[in-house]
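Entry 12.
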Amino acid sequence: MRYVYGITSALLVGGSALALVTQSPVGAQVAQNESSEIARAVPRSGAPESFADLVEQLQPAVVNISTKQEVTLGVRLNPFAGTREPITQEQQGGGSGFLISSDGYIVTNNHVISGGPRGEAVNEVTVTLTNLKEYKAKIVGRDAASDLALLKIEASGLPFVKFADSSRARVGDWVVAIGNPLGLGSTVTAGIISAVQRNIGQGGAYDRYIQTDTAINRGNSGGPLFDLQGNVVGINNMLISPVGANIGVNFAIPAEAAIPVIDALRAGERPQRGYLGVAIGPVSEDMADALGLRKDRGELIQRVEEGQAAAKAGLRRGDVVTKVNGREVTPQQTLSYIVANIKPGTRIPLEVVRDGKTITLNVVVGTRPPEEELAGSNFDPEAEQTLPDDPAGSGDQAVQERLGMAVQTVTPDIARAIGVDTDTKGLVIAAVSGSSDAGRKGLRRGDVILSANDKPVASADALAAVVEEAKRAGRGAVKLEILRRGAPPGFIAIRIAG
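Predicted 3D structure (tokens):
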């Protein structure tokens, strides 16, 4: 279970309070808790008598997930052989998941089946059912942006559960969580929905959660949050706590956000998200005053990317977008969040304030590029990067599978960022798997591959072609010419996997 350390404080005020009781005038509204609707809304017992029958039906569809991964912690020099040897350690982890089909498809969180310093997929995933049967699971797909993953075990006739329409969830609804917290198998807790569409400030297309006070802890990650009809209303994901354990402020990914991602992963596709191609900034109080806008309404366009949807629609630097497809842009409903959740290819209106006047532009929403591609325009060599779950092309996939790394073509901007000449031609390493030969031999993000087997490479396809040529020739390694900031180019041989 992911968690965020928070700082909490409580102010206790002692003493007495003076209550003034006055006679209500004729026709005045009654207090909310005096309404006759209360009697109809609350069951006679005040709460469900028991969750036992519900849990008995649902528990068999909830699984325990355990993982193993060999992680490279560093490199040491063997003084006798004069060679560098990796320092590795096997790490174990796990969490919860649930079956969504009788033939073994399982939903969980991406972070449950990720490990290592760069979030690589783990080497081994084991799924245990409530009847204690164990299965080795295949990772069908994973999506870091939504923190969702799909697994598959080879079995049939399995119990499974369905998703709910989480848009109908209401604050105060009862919910039940089933999972494997703190290594305790198949644990059931219950509570209520504390908030819906909760924005916790992480940004992106999926920063909207169901908040619940249902007790969840580490190990509940990826497990289902059920409504009282037995449908999955959310996927338990994280908690906020000053101590790292449950204090009743927990978050689940809403089913409505999870379903499109799971459907895409099941079909072997990359989840599609809307994209305008702009850099945005908040409208501060002073900026709002300068533009004659309400505070906290709209977002300022700082940059417009050439050839992208916003540029084609006529959006300009300095514009303030106040509405997207009829929805107001606010700190809670940001421009990026609204657009990311619109299907690419959809034509929508943008309400824009320009030169003090409100105009409407119509835009056809584009498709958000892979995160690694977006990162290329602002390459930070010190940032931790994960290998992409769904490489952009066949060359990228081959390089990732054969060499355990992700690469990007060096541009002048990237060259400046990593401290090499701007006319450098080659491939910058964006991420390296710690368990790969490249990772064990010390290659890292920001290194530049100038050539492979003495052939210049300026694209992933070119590098993949050299690797495949070496494989066909019966070679088990490829010679790479590497440029690192502050050092002259050097050669290193990297084993070819597969």
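Annotation: DSSP finds eleven helices and 30 strands in the chain. The chain has four domains: 57-152, 166-254, 274-367, 379-495.
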